[in-house]
Amino acid sequence: MAARSISYEFTKGLLRNNPVFVQVLGMCPVLAVSTSVVNGLGMGLATSFVLVSAALIASVIKPIVPSEVRIPVYAVVIATFVTIADLVLRAFFPPLSASLGPYVPLIVVNCVIMGRIEAFATRNRPIAAVSDALGMGAGFTAALMVLGAVREVLGSGAFFGIELFGEGFTPLLVMILPAGAFLTLGVLMAVFNAAKEGSHMVLIKAESKAEA
Amino acid sequence: MKRMIIVLTLATLFSGLVLAATFVSLSPLIELNRERALQASLAALFADVEDPTFEQLDVDVIDIYRGVDSEDQLIGYAVRITAAGYNGPINMLIGLTPELTQIEGLQVVENLETPGLGGRITENQFRGQFRGLNPTRAIRTVRNVEPDPEANEVQAISGATISTNAVVEAINRRAQEAIDAIRAAEGR
Q1: Around Cβ B127, how many Cβ atoms within 10 Å?
Q2: Nearest residue to B36 (alpha-carbon basis) of A91, A42, A96, A105
Q3: How many domains, in total, are found in chain A?
Q4: pLDDT digits (tens, 9 = 90+) for A17-65
Q5: For residue B103, what is the enclosing H or E element?
């Protein structure tokens, strides 16, 4: 594989190859904890921490890990960082830890992480692996926050916990319930893909013009 | 074959060491946070008392806290009650007046109820209804009519029957037991 620039590896996770809107990975936390912006941010950062640390370790230890036991070894590495993240949240951010509940330990089975390790980290040098993980983590966090923002504004009438509307506002309860997560995700994904398609069309038109 | 075993063993061993170190260094903080959350909930039960302090009574099975104000006057008791909620346990504290004849208040310490529905058990509109009720008689829930506090009634949260009943039933089941335990422990 031709080596690509570090900035390419980082930016691809943000939009072009966004783990949520394009790869549709890690749907369980995306749907479950995106009830508010703060929850989305917390979950996104915890996942990013695990993703980056595990990608770095996996990329470094790759040469000594026999391929038969690579899955259990990487699972142990991921589980270790998830437990660390869980303990740190409980020690320093107890309210956030309470609102994320059982979803922090469940980062272990988030397929974004195993996916990036298998598909990228173990096939690239540590620097590339870390920039890929940082980009994917940032893309995941951003997606969770956008989803959280839509659901919090419509479902609780607040943004970052600050009340937006007066007494007269009746929150759309469905938006904080699981059904609201599916509705928001579907609409956002459609918008995202339409925008992607749009920019693609512009590129193609520009190219064909240049050729003519 | 041999290499597989060595690598996997080393990986788990190393991970175990890292986790043990993290756990040992962070667990005092985690314990402190839990204690702080409990103290905050206890203080919120007796909101009109300044600087209350609480001490756990030496009672089996039930967690009971004896509260005193800054002049060492008894302000009441708090009892930890766990209800089986809709999505998991609801961890609550109920406050009792020093005479043990009235409920002082209700605080929800931890819950996993659905936000906006069962999650409203944490709102004052629901919790506040328990203040002044008689803990020695069964509390009843009513729907669509004004609850009568004299008859030990509270209004159910609409759309959250299971959460409401869980809270009320747990109090009904445990309150008398707690009162007996307090009487025995305090020798009265």
Answers
A1: 20
A2: A91
A3: 1
A4: 899 988 888 888 899 888 889 989 999 999 999 999 999 999 999 999 9
A5: strand B103-110
Q: How far is B10 from chain A (nearest CA, A)?
A: 9
What residues in A contact B23, CB-CB < 8 Å? 87
Q: Which of A76, A87, A156 has the CB atom closest to B15's CB atom?
A: A76
Inspect the interface and report whether the beta carbons of A87 and B115 lie closer than 8 Å: no
Contact status of A156 with chain B (Cβ, < 8 Å): yes
First CA to last CA distance, chain A: 33
For residue A1, being part of any structural domain is answered with no
Q: Where are the alpha helices (DSSP H) in chain A?
A: 6-11, 27-33, 37-61, 70-92, 94-100, 111-119, 126-156, 178-211
Q: What ipTM was estimated for this complex? A: 0.76
Asked if A66 reaches chain B (Cβ–Cβ under 8 Å), the answer is: yes
pLDDT digits (tens, 9 = 90+) for A118-163: 999 999 999 999 999 999 999 999 999 999 999 999 988 888 888 8
- CA nearest to A145, candidates A50, A54, A78, A48: A48
Averaged pLDDT for residues B134-154: 89
Q: Is residue A98 part of a domain?
A: yes
Neighbours of B80 (CB within 10 A): 19
For chain B, domain boundaries: 44-186
